[in-house]
Amino acid sequence: MNTLFRSKLTFCALGLFFPGTGLNCFYLQGIKNFWAWAQFFALIGGVLGFWLLQINTSSSGAAWFLLILGFIAIEASWLSTIVFGLRPDEKWDLQFNSNTQSHQKTESGWPVVITVILSLILGAGTMMTFLAIGFEQFFVYQIEEARKISQ
Fold it and tell me: Which of 4, 17, 106, 121 has the greatest number of CB atoms lying within 10 Å of its CB?
């Protein structure tokens, strides 16, 4: 039986400030949450992929795959912050606070709206940056391969 009150602001703040760690999912559903662990390990893989790219000068396919996993974990965290932050308070309470013994109700207000806005800005900016770097690396690779063929 769930006896703790789940704050929408706490969930959104965890998703905004600790993206990819799964802390926001752990907050809602506990240590046994599959998606929280998936986010956490994908973030660790992304850090490992970034480290491998620094060592291998951007030529490792496995490193790029791991980096993409980390990117997806971070973006998924910001996306869940947006989705759950925009959820009506009544629906939030019905899903996450229906078993609480306190009669406290969720009142989102401006702090939740600001976390949603910041998550949208950071998520969109990160996605555009990642896509720009990814396409740049793809075209650099294509040019290098064309030079090899022409020689």
Answer: 106
